[in-house]
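A favour, since you know our structure tokens better than I do. What I am after is a single protein written out in full by you. Could you add the entry underneath, on a fresh line?


***
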Amino acid sequence: MTYVFATTNKHKAAEAADIMSRASGGKTELLTLVDIGFTGDIDENGSTFAENAFIKAQAAYEFCRKHNLPYGVIADDSGLAVKALGGAPGIYSARYAASEAGTSGNSPDADNNALLLKNMEGKTDREAAFICAVCYIDDGRRIEVSGSCDGVLLTEAKGCDGFGYDPLFFMPSLGKTLAEISASEKNQVSHRSKAFRELCKKLG
């Protein structure tokens, strides 16, 4: 099956396509916004992951209908919620450093990680969770699911795989960070894998 995934992030698209292919037992192709020629900005002004996922899915769905593209649309919004920081960076995970600096747009992973480590200095409670909300829209359905995984934040990065906050996110159940495991291993335990596997169940 082919769907539109409302993202320009190729890492996320490849990860989600692999998860859905394994969960559905058949090849799933995810076209990004770049692939379908969507060039506009989507104002992610929701206050929750679920609200932002819907905003992105709705914008991409309307574009597809306008241009007669026969695809259902998937969008996700995900991020890191740190207990000691009151749930931050939360919905601002991808633009954590930029938001702190008062600028717009996403921030480089290195900047986000550096700011997180700075804000966690001296804190002993390092519990955190990755959260992923997914919204699917087609001509007759709107499906919303979510997934999460728990871990603790390290005081320094470990591992060279993954992206985002993966090098700082240690999962006790694995004894490793998400950046120290293979993509296939990550796609079995991550917040995104849980959410997208649940989506596959509901898509049937």
